[in-house]
TrEMBL record:
Kinase in keyword set: no
SMART domains the UniProt entry points to: HTH_LACI
Annotated Gene3D superfamilies: 3.40.50.2300, lambda repressor-like DNA-binding domains
Naturally occurring in which organism (per UniProt): Streptosporangium brasiliense
Database matches in SUPFAM superfamilies: lambda repressor-like DNA-binding domains (SSF47413), Periplasmic binding protein-like I (SSF53822)
Name by which UniProt lists this protein: LacI family transcriptional regulator
Stretches the record annotates as Disordered: 329-353
Bias (Basic and acidic residues) ranges: 329-340
Keywords from the named record: DNA-binding, Transcription, Transcription regulation
One protein family per Pfam: LacI
All residue ranges annotated as the HTH lacI-type domain in the record: 3-57
């Protein structure tokens, strides 16, 4: 049997009630009692009973999180950022992956709610198919969406300002001399895919450049390779390719390199996310950095504001991105490599577009 609160009280020479008050922090005890209890806890290796605490406080000290897939480096980054923020609070994270399937996502949400999590953070895998399960969960427990969101609203959202991100990318390649551009992204099954294509088209129209039809597949390395082969099969290459994420961009770079194309001399390539591999590929990838720590902090702040007994209109907060210039884009006068213009703060809004 493990060490109990009775053992701690006995070792500290105090009553069980005093030991409990010292450990909970809800009621003050004398400095001497607090010190003796702390010493007994350390010596005995006592760990509070989480189940008992949950029953007493009506909380579990856990947050559930559902992302489309852990294999995507961006979602790994955002999960780590959320966990890093939670470490400061003593709250634990329960993580699930939806496998990009609304039915699996609904099951994962039910599982986390059955475990009585205190809140949920989710990146919905499908802007339409995820709606019923996300709305159902939001009616039962505080919920915040990150990166992606469902079309019907119903819950707070925080993510990067996709429109600003694509403006940074397009303006950068145009400043480097690009006159024809193409967007390579994902099919429009989630909000990120749609917002990034919309942002690209608007930015390219403002810049007055020639735009080729977009190539849409999925947010994977394999699709990037395939998209690169499709570009190589065309009569001519565009001056620049803007990608929906870094995985696509890295796959595309590989295909172009195997096809004998020199990047950025012949084609500039810009990614999106700034995952760890972006700086390691050859050549290092110019990309738009998502501020994952800021997104995680804002998501948890919003989660703390949700009151099930006092609903309020859903909030959408778009946080400014940063362009990170490396070696896959043509040099622009006044812009140094591996450094870019940072955006200004966050933008509370109705729709981040």
């Amino acid at each position: 049997m493990g060490v109990t609160i009775h053992d701690v009280a006995r070792a500290a020479g105090v009553s069980v009630a005093s030991a409990s008050r010292a450990l909970s922090g809800r009621r003050k005890v004398g400095a001497d009692v607090a010190e003796r209890v702390a010493r007994a806890v350390a010596e005995l290796g006592y760990r509070p009973n989480a189940v008992a605490k949950a029953l007493r406080d009506r909380t579990t000290g856990t947050i559930g999180m559902v992302v489309p897939g852990i294999g995507n480096p961006f979602f790994t980054m955002i999960v780590e950022a959320v966990e890093h923020q939670l470490q400061r609070t003593g709250v634990d994270l329960l993580l699930c992956a939806s496998q990009y399937t609304p039915e699996v996502e609904a099951s994962r949400l039910e599982t986390l709610m059955a475990r009585r999590v205190d809140g949920l953070i989710i990146s919905p895998c499908d802007m339409e198919g995820s709606v019923p399960a996300v709305l159902n969960a939001a009616r039962q427990v505080p919920l915040v969406q990150v990166d992606r969101y469902i079309e019907d609203g119903g819950a707070d959202w925080v993510g990067v300002d996709d429109a600003q991100a694509l403006t940074l990318a397009v303006d950068h390649v145009v400043a480097g001399g690009a006159r024809s551009v193409v967007f390579v992204g994902s099919r429009l099954v989630n909000s990120s895919a749609r917002l990034r294509l919309d942002g690209f088209e608007r930015a390219a129209a403002r810049a007055g450049v020639s735009v080729r039809p977009p190539l849409l597949g999925d947010f994977t390395l394999g699709w990037g390779v395939e998209a690169g082969r499709l570009l190589l099969a065309e009569d001519s290459l565009p001056d620049a390719v803007i990608c929906g994420n870094d995985e696509i961009a890295i796959g595309l770079l590989r295909a172009l390199r195997l096809g004998g194309v020199r990047v950025p001399t012949e084609v500039s390539v810009v990614g999106f996310d700034d995952v760890g591999y972006a700086a390691m590929c050859d050549p290092p990838l110019t990309t738009v950095r998502q501020p994952v720590e800021a997104i995680a902090a804002e998501a948890l702040r919003l989660l703390g504001q949700v009151r099930m007994d006092d609903p309020r209109p859903a909030q959408r907060i778009a946080i400014a991105p940063r362009l990170v210039v490396r070696e896959t884009s043509r040099p622009v006068e006044g812009v140094s490599r591996d450094r870019g213009a940072a955006g200004a703060g966050s933008t509370p809004a109705g729709d981040p577009t």
